[in-house]
Structures are given as structure tokens and as C-alpha cells.
Amino acid sequence: MTCRLIALLLNLFLALPAAANPALEAVIADNLDQIERPSRRTVEPVVARIAATGPEGMALLSAWAGRSLGLADGRLVIVTGDGATDAVTGQAVTGADPKMLRPNAGVRGVIESALVAGEIASPDRARRAAALASIARDGTAEHLAALRAAAPEPDPALAARRARIEKLLTIRFDADPAARVTAIQDMAGDVGLDFRAALNPLLATRRVASADEPQGANIARELRVGSDDFPREAAIALLTAQGLVQPRLTAADQRNALAAHIVDGRVGGVSVAELSDPQARDRAYEALEGAGTVPPAATEAETEAALAGIRFFDVYAEPEAAVTDAARAAQRGAEWRLGAMKGIDLGLDALSLASIYFLAAIGLAITFGVMRVINMAHGEFIMMGAYTGYVAQTLIADRTLSLVAALPLAFAVTFAAGVVLYRLVIRHLAHRPLETLLATFGVSIALQQLAKNIFGTQARPLTAPAWLEGAITVNDVVSISTIRVAIFVLALLFLGLFLFIMKRTRLGLEVRAVTQNPGMAASMGINPDRIAMMTFGLGSGIAGIAGVAIGLFAQVTSELGQQYIVQSFMTVVVGGVGNIWGTLAGAGLIGVLSKVIESFNPSNTLAAQTFMILFIVIFIQFRPRGIIPQRGRAAEA
Amino acid sequence: MTRQPFILRNPSVLVVLALLAAFTLAVTLMSTAYGSGALPTSTVKVLGKTLCLALAAVAMDLVWGYLGILSLGQMAFFALGGYMIGQWLMYARTEAIVAASLSGNPIPPTVQELREAVANQIFGVVGSADLPLVWTLAHSLTAQLVLVVAVPGLLALVFGWLAFRSRVNGVYLSILTQAMTLALALWLFQNDSGFRGNNGLSGLQNIPGLDGVGQARLSVWFLWASAAALALFYVLAAWVVGGKFGSVIRAIRDDETRVRFLGYPVEGFKLAVFTLAAMITAIAGALYYPQAGIINPAELMPIASIYLAVWVAIGGRGRLYGAMIGAIVVSLLSSWFTGGRAPDLNLPGYAVKWVDWWQVALGLSFVLVTLFAPKGIAGIFDRLAGILPPRRHGRDLGPDQGALQEQEAKA
Amino acid sequence: MTALLEVDGISVSFDGFRAINNLSFSIGAAELRAVIGPNGAGKTTFMDIVTGKTRPDSGDVKFGESSKSLLRMNEAQIARAGIGRKFQRPTVFEDQSVAANLTMALKASRGPFAVLFWKPSAASAARVAELAAEVGLAEHTHRKAGELSHGQKQWLEIGMLLASAPRLLLVDEPAAGMTLAEREQTTALLVRLAQTRAVVVVEHDMDFVRRLDCKVTVLHQGSVLAEGSLDHVTRNPDVIEVYLGR
């Protein structure tokens, strides 16, 4: 669609101040005849002279190509939606009834390449860039000629861009096959969408059925009937479409034909009651066929005979074999690199998913590791964190500030909730893990309903600040949204913080002691009750922060936690208990696997999740204690 | 030592059976079809469904209360049973409807055409017109009735074998059962799983071949069937847990390692009970869903199974009648409170709408039961019967288990 | 005399720590043997290996006349083959009656279906009563095991071991927490049991071992340091060095 280029240029020129252009006037006066009835062969010098007259000439050319140039009383006028202006003077023309000039496609091509040539020679860098972008969107053979003829580009970035576009246009439009092959080979390995788009039409094929190899055609391959990508039905359909066999009779057609010829409860000598049998239907139809009342349909044998005598080919639309070979090789190379890029992209996706699981599961892992207690309300703590973020946002208008406030706030809220839960419930159920699981489940349903009562059932937005919107894009394939990067950083931060607390602080020392041997720790003067409470609070607090992070890209609803809780459990179970690296490994494994399974069938995330869980159930068979199991005699208890 | 008959050794079984019979008789006499009509058909259906849930709870109690496995996937078997019977109900009914509509055609349909039309009718909603492989036997009631117990039983057998042989225990096992349910639910949610995705199976309340009977009578028939199944399997469960077998599985619950050193194949016992419970649950489900009329994958999300555990816990686990009472009381209360018919509780300054607050109350009361009445409602009966809990001092005391327990032991 | 249990060069390590190091050991069909050794000598691990709880990294354990390897069997199979184990702490099923505990331990088919259709007979009831009487719990058969005293639980567990009639009995610190009178009873019982079967007693208490008056195996750092009568091993300078001398 060259119209867009022309419209762009038109706008540019019409914005110029109107001024008389004597050179233009002279050219027009000399060649009015040519302009009125241009011919593809002779118009070129005229166009070149008009283009040389400057901006007014260019405006005239773009109006000409866009079929908005008219002739009124021997003067050229440019007609726009709401009026007309004199092409030479730029003054408004009123009352005229211009006769519109309608140059043919060949002439328009000449004009356009002159326009492009003018634009890419423009002293204004922005204009040159705009022209290149426009050509990149929809280039033509004329653009190619203009690009080749144009003066060298001074700006290195634009020069590179221009060279690339020229190559792409060469691939598509150059008359010389050798030049096209060279261009294709030059660009092989490129994964840009534009290159792949340039290759696709070269490799487009159509199906041909004929008795012999089609002469002079660029054959991609011969098809074997009955193979996976060319089933028998497709072959028959192709033959029918080419008129080589009679159309086969569908069951519905047969039924309708039979129904239309019921005479006295019989069709072709077969009684209607018998027609529930397919063979009886065939007999009846053949009888009708014999009587000439229904059109003949291809029988199985006829079809078979027709198929036997005919070969099927995929034929390239592009006649040059050298070009298609080069294109195919280039495409294969591009596909390979594309696969690698997609792998990297998948890796990034998996990494961000893993960091989410890590954030969601780490709190669970801490409490499970220290107390052997599964907190079913963990998901609801995540939800509380997300709602805290939402509340912070309603109170503080500035998005960045509210986020900064929300993180510690969410930690504080869920820490407090965790401590309360511990003091009121879990402490009294020590060493009864299954009952703890159920009691915390009671808390979980109560909290969920409470959230519904307070915030309603519809999703609440938790909007990320502007600097977190958007994505970091490496190329056409590899990109990752900034929020996910931020979550990854957050997960790293928490890993660091957690390691610091565990290895460098008194609390961490005591927690590790209680995890390994609570009895011994107690006899060393550590209060296991206090340690359990602190770890429970810590784990819950991290859940709150995970909630804020998750809320930034997911909908904040009362069921937010439920969506992550099972995956969090899986992470802990797969990773192994009582070790942060285990949780990390579990989150990594689950994140990567989810994405890999999903990539096999991207449309079906449900199947991916199903297979993921099945995998975990089987994984547990081989590593019942997780990837990084707890060691020593304590693990036996 | 003479051995008393089974019933006399378990007087509670007799009481339960008598109450069940009285209940069934009372409902029948109050139904619109066979009695005064005091109970509308919908209520009869609710009561019939409640009996099915009670049966599922009894099975859950076998697994959890007696064997000590907190299975959070029990409702998967329930729903699978429902799906299996639902396949026949839906297929047979659709076939009847399609056959009726095709018989209006000038030419009688072929078998193939009939099948295609049925498939189109059932699967058009998920954009498919082929009958999936899993529906191969759907035309046969006998086959699907076998599948009602075979499919959940097989699933339980395979899953149990995998889980038990790798000695996954306690909380891990609970999480694993939950994962199994979730995986199954997600699989069923897909449109191409062959079970109509999230549309599920519907129209199950219409029993093919019984079109003339009417829902009022059908609902009572199903109530009878549910009561009979409950009675039968209650007696079976009581017999299973009553003898040496029950002794062994309770021993497994309390100290599985010790049972192993006595020479019992612990995994075999677990597998037997788990599979039996799965099959009982599936039968309960197969009776439940024709009364509910519709089944979809949401029915087997993990939350449903956790609710089942909640009922059993509130009723009192380790007592079959406790599980039953819990399921009946809590599920009826739940449907009453969330049905919007319960009057608001007017506190000063705030009117408590039960639709909004029942869930909160249930959750908290559940926490309270776990904390203060671990024996649940059945604990009251124990108290009345004068059965005092043994003065158990927790599990063994020792350096590995931490100081807390020693404090507990003193208390 | 052919050995009933033959432990041949087993080694096992936990996270790099060698709990058992090339240990060889054998015991006859009717023999009482005491195993002593300092903490961490590998006594409990040795019992874990024989009963199937722990798998050795190398070596073999053979049992019975046909010298069947125990390494390919699980705990339950080993128990059914005739190896009984008495834990250090009394582990009985506290929620069940003394009679139920004993009934469970009676020698009978252990498969789930056999158990399901098992019916108590006059013979089984008599055997339970006899066992209860033997361990001094005749009046307590209907009480729950959890209500018994610590010593009574120990006895109940011994009763359960007798009920399953093992050919090899592994006893872990039987005297722990017993009164003097109970110890004497226990000694007598163990000595009597050893007349018809093999009994291995792991014990710390030297007085108790002396009362048993049997062959003693001293373990140290996962292997046998000395073997013989108690007087013999207590004179062994190595034993004095690692165990008694300190």
C-alpha cells in the first residue's frame, strides 16, 4: 500500500508555506501535454525535472501519484478533501471544477520512485528515516531502483538500515536471480521478522496434480498419497477441484438424493425401511443412477483408478530454482536460530515463573522445615499481601511511593497475622501435622470469605508504576516484561536476605538448631516456641511480599492465594525440606518444566498443568525427600 | 470364649441402621409422590444427596480416621463415579432424543448416522462432533456400572501403589493426593479431554427409559437407593474395622514402622483400604449426581475433598457414625445458611448476612473443633457412653521429639 | 554348629560417616549373645540392617538354613522370615487393648485378605490369655495399652515378640528404665528364650550383661573389636582402651 507513503508525503508538503515556484511553472508549461496523458516509457525525464524543482514539485508528484491532481483551465490543482490549491503557487483555488488526472500503475511507479529518491536524498534526517520506514513497510520494485540510485547515506545507523532494506527488496524484486541469491545468502541466519517475511512468499507453493512432472515448473517436492501431510482425502479433493474425477458422494448427499426419489415407499427398488443399512443405500443409489434420475457419482474404484495414474507435486510460485534453494537454506538457518532464540526466551519466562514460585513457596518451606507444619492459609497470606498493596495504592496516589510503602506494610501485616495464627492455633497443635493442616485450612476458608466480604468478589487492580510497565526487548523473539525482571530481582533479594538471616544472625543460628534437633536446642537454652513463632512470622511475612509482587501482574481477588498454593506445596515437596537451596531448586525445576511442557502446546495450559503434576507425582517416586533432602538422623524422625 | 454375632458386638451399627430406616420411612411418608407432600421434591433430593455425602464421609473415615491417611483427593473418586454413570445417562438419553428426531426423516438413519448425531449433540458444545474413545462403552449401562467402581478403583490402586511404595507419608501424602485431584480436575477442564470440558455432563436427572415416572417419584427412589447403599456400606465398613483387620489398620495409623516389624505388609493394607474407600466413594458419587442433575470438573477441585475432611473432622474421625453425622449436619447446615433462607443475625450496628458470613463461621468453628474437640461430635456420644479416653501421653518421649512434648506429657 | 544369622563384611555410611565398617558377625540357632560398645559404635545401625530398616552399602546378610539373603527383603518380609525386634523404648499400640496388641502379634498369615477374614478361635484366645499371663498382664487384657505403666508396656512388647515366635530375637537395651526386680525377671526370660532360639541383646549396662552370662561381642567404630566371654573381653587391652578404660 503505497497510499500510506503518499499520504505521509502529502501531509508534509501541504504543510509548507505556499510560494510561487517559477522553475516548476516552466516545467509544467513545457510538459502539460505529457502530464495530462503520461506514458510509462517517456514520463521519466518529466518526473525527474519536476522533482528537481523542490518541495512544491514533490508535493505535485505525490498528489499526482495519489490521484488527487486535477487540471482546471490549463492550471494544475491539488485537490484535497475540503478544497483545491494551485499546484504551482499553492494558493487556494475556488469555483474550479478540475478534471482529475488518473495515471496508470506504470506511471505511478515511476512517480513513486522519484518521490522516494527525493525523500531519501532529503537533507532532513527525520524525513530520510521516515521514508526508509515507509519503504520497509511496503516496498516495491521501484523503491529498489530508487534506493540503488540514491546518493550514499551519511548517517551510519540509517545507512545500515538502508542497506538492509535494499537487500530485502533485492530478494523480493531484483530481476537478476544471482543478485537475489547473493542477497539471501548475505542475510542467512538473520532472525528478523522482515527477513522471514521476505522469504515466505518465495517459498510459497501450490499443489499440482498431473500425470507427469510439470515441465519448467520449480518443483518443491513430490507428494506421496496417504502420507501424514497429504492424506488420501486431500488428494481426492484436489483431483475433484481440478475436475479429474467426479465428486465423491457424501453420506448426506446420498441420503438427500434418496429421500427426493421415494416412490410408494421404495427407492430404486429398495424399500425405505431397509435404508438404515448403508449397503442398501448404495444399491438404491446405483439403481437410481442407472435410471438416470440422479447424477453419477464417483465410485471407490473410479477414484482409485484416477489416483493411480496421477502424481502430485508441490510447486513453487517462484520459478527460479536457485532462488528457492537459497531461500530454503536461509529459512532453515533462520528457523534454527529462531529455535535457539525461542529457547532463550523460554528460559527467561521459566526464570520469572520460577522466581514467582520461589517467592510464594519460600515462606511455606521455612515453616515446614522448622515445624513440620503445612500452613494451608499460606495462600491467604499471599492474598493479604496483595490486598495490602491495593489498600496502600488507594491511600497513596504516587504509584512508586505506594509500592515502596506496600512492601514493608505487607510484610508487617502478614507477619502479624502469622504470629497471631501461631499463638492461637498452631502452638496448640504441636506435633500433630495433619490436624494443623486442617485447622489452618479452616483459617484459610474464613480468611477468603472475609476478603470477599470486605473487598467484594470482583478483581481489584494493583497497578505497577510506569517504570515497571513495558518490556525489555532484545530482538523480535527475545523479550521479557520489566515486572518479571523486577520480580526476579526481588526473589534474588529475598534469597540473599534469607541466607543472611540464616547464616549470619543469632535468630538464624537458633532456627537452624531447632530445625536439626529441637530437643538439643531446647536444652541449650533456646526457646523453641519463640523460634517457631518468629519463623512462622517470617515465613508469613515473605508470603505477604510475594503477594504484592504477584498482585502486580495478576488479578487481586480473594482466590489469588489458591492459585499459587498447590504450586507452592509442589515446590516445597520437590525441592526438599529445611533447605533454602532445595526450595530454589524446586522452584527452578517446576518453573522450567511448566514452561517447557507449555511450549509443546501453548494453547493448552490446562494440559501443561496436568502433566506437570503427574510429573511431580512420579518424581516423588524416585526422590521421596526432594531434590535436596534433609540429611542425617534427624531426617528419619 | 464364645464369639458374639457381629451386630451385637457393634450395637452402634444397629442404632445407625434403625435411625436410617426410620429416616427413610419418614421422608417417604412426607414426600409428594408417596405421602403427605410435606416435603417438596427438591428437599427430598437434597436429603438423598446428603445420604450420598454421608457415605463418602464413611469411606473418608476409613482412610483417614482408621488408616491415618489424610486423603485430600477423596472427592475425585466421588466425581469419577458420577462421570461414569453420567456417561451412560447422557448418552442413552441423547440417543433416545436423537432417534426420535431422526425418525421424522423420510429415510431411516444408519447406525453410523445415529452415532454421529448423538456425538454431535453431546460434543457440539465443545466444538467436536466425534465420540471420544472414552465413550466407547457409554451405550451400555452394565459396562458403565462396572466402570463406576473399576475406574476410581484402578486410579486409587495405581496412585496408592506409587505413593505407598515410596513411603510417602503424612503431610507429604496429603499434598500428593491433593495434587492428584487437581491434575484430574485440570485434565477434565480441557475441552478435548472427552468429558465436555467445563460444561461437564448435564441432564443427568432424567433417567433413560423412565421418562414417564416423574421427578417426584424418582427422587424418592434415589433416596431409597442412597439409604440402602449407605446402610450396606456402613455395615461393610463396620465389619472391616471391627475385627483384626481394623486392629491392624489402626496400628498402622499409630505406628506404621512397628507394624512392619510385626511382619505385616503395611503397603498392602494401605492399598486395600484406600482402594476400597475409593470404590465406596465412587458408588456414592454415582448415586449423587443423578440427583444433582449435573456434574462438572469444578466438583473435583481439591477444595471439595477438603470439605469432606472437614465434615469428618467435625463429626469425629475414627468413629464411622461420627463421620456420617458430620457430613449430614454440616452439609445440611451449609446449604441452609448459604441458600439465603437463614434469617440475618442482627448485631448492634451490623446485620450478619449468613450468605456472607457462614463460610467464616464454618472456618472458625472448624479451627475450634480441631483445637478443643478433636473427637468432634462423636466425642459427645463417647462421653455419654462413658468411654473415657486413655491417658495417652503422646507418642514416645525422647531427645528427637523436642522438649515441648515432655511438657505436654506432664500436663 | 551352622549359623542362623551370618553377617558378612557389611559396611554402611551416612553422609560420609562410616557407621558400620566391614562388620562380620554370626550367631547360632539357639544362642544368647550380648553386643556391647560405646555410643556410636554401630549397635543400633547393626540391628537396623538386620531388620531391613537400613540397606548396607556392601556386604551380605544371610539367614536360616538355606542362607537366604535378607538384603532383598523388606522389613515385613524379614519379620515374617522369623526375626523379631524389641525396640529400646516400648512401642505398643497404645490406643488398643492388650489383647488386641497380642492378637495382632500372633503367628498367622499376614496378608490383608487373610487378616480381613481371620476369625478368633478358641485356640487363639487361649494363646493370647497364656501370653498375657506369661508377661504378667493377665488381669489387664481388656485395658488399653496406653494406660499401662512403662514397665508393663515393656512386658507387653516382649509378649508380642513371643506371640510371633521369632527364630532370632533382637533386643535393644531391654533393661533401660526397669526396676531391679523387673531386670531380674527380664534376665531370666531372655536366658530361657535363648534355649530355643537365637537372642541378640544390645546393652550398655555391664551388670546386666554379666547376669546374662553369655558370649559378648564388642563393637567399636562399626566393626568387631573383641568377642568371647565377658571376662575375656574385659581383659582385652583394646576393649579397656576404648570402652572401659576411660
From TrEMBL, chain B:
Its main location: membrane. It holds the Pfam family BPD_transp_2. One of its GO terms (molecular function) is branched-chain amino acid transmembrane transporter activity. It is a multi-pass membrane protein. The keyword Nucleus does not apply. Keywords: Cell membrane, Membrane, Transmembrane, Transmembrane helix. One of its GO terms (cellular component) is plasma membrane. It is found in: Cell membrane. The chain crosses the membrane at residues 12-34, 46-67, 74-91, 141-164, 171-189, 221-241, 262-288, 294-313, 320-337, 357-374. This is Amino acid/amide ABC transporter membrane protein 2, HAAT family.
Automatic annotation (TrEMBL), chain C:
The keyword ATP-binding applies. GO terms for cellular component: plasma membrane. Gene3D superfamilies: P-loop containing nucleotide triphosphate hydrolases. PROSITE patterns: ABC_TRANSPORTER_2. The keyword Protease does not apply. Residues 5-246 form the ABC transporter domain. InterPro entries: ABC_AA/LPS_Transport (IPR051120), ABC_transporter-like_ATP-bd (IPR003439), ABC_transptr_urea_ATP-bd_UrtD (IPR017781), BCA_ABC_TP_C (IPR032823), P-loop_NTPase (IPR027417). It comes from the Bacteria. GO terms for molecular function: ATP binding; ATP hydrolysis activity. Pfam families: ABC_tran, BCA_ABC_TP_C. Transmembrane segments: none annotated. Keywords: ATP-binding, Nucleotide-binding, Transport. This is ABC transporter related protein.
